[in-house]
Task: structure prediction
Amino acid sequence: MLLLVATFFMAFVLLLYMLSPLISPKPLALPGAHVVVTGGSSGIGKCIAIECYKQGAFITLVARNEDRLLQAKKEIEKHSINDKQVVLCISVDVSQDYSQVENVIKQAQEKLGPVDMLVNCAGMSISGKFEDVEVSTFERLMSINYLGSVYPSRAVITTMKERRVGRIVFLSSQAGQVGLFGFTAYSSSKFAIRGLAEALQMEVKPYNVYVTVAYPPDTDTPGFAEENKTKPLETRLISETTSICTPEQVAKQIVKDAIQGNFNSSIGSDGYMLSSLTCGMAPVTSITEGLQQVVTMGLFRMLSLLYLRSFDTIIRRCMVERTKYEITDKTA
Result:
């Protein structure tokens, strides 16, 4: 009986594997494609632009700082594979005025053609205990991290649907998969990205437009260095439980997943675990991906409880140490 069940299961898995390409989107060809990268003057955004440029794409970089944009342009152009490629730079704050963002996208499309892929990398992180974070910080992060992705996406989506081709990439974070100490403002803005992406994918999939949400871990970027200056002790200790990735490593994986039309893009074993554990009602690109999530959820749930327990231990240890210092100070 067990042998019959095992045989049936193996045949079922094999059938799913054979059928999975039938529901997977056709990969996007980057040679000659127009890729727009917001927040593309540094960090992961710049590395994504370089990776796409290496594969023959035309690039539009969008960021606020003109000097950094021009520096990034020179760096990206070193990786050209033909003399027809172009890197266009446009300075604008993508989180403030939708009409400005819309005009910028129109300018880019007039010069380099319709946008084939939009990568929303503009964002920032500010950490701190909930009661210590100013209300204006919550508003600022939601504006930059969330609306800064809504506005460019809104500006390209109509043309993508009309052409029935396109990719939209949203940069969330592992802090957008699980809420962490010190990230009440940051995590909420990154969780919002996922909700936007899931709803948008449902709308645009019939038009052959695919959405990818990237959940990078701590990455060695200028933004991460700035974030570390104000991190609470607990947040920093939790962060140190995982390794820091290079922006080049993260960029390669995001571009690969976006080309394939994968909804989730994760980095490393921790990223894979988090994506599987928090998959919920998220879209899947293939039947096999869905099957993997079903099979592995039980094991990953156990691992996640161990992770959360370790985080609790770190926080409690910090509380004990602070209490000791407070008692010592009062005694002195």
Remarks:
- Residues 27-300 form a domain with the Rossmann fold fold (CATH 3.40.50.720).
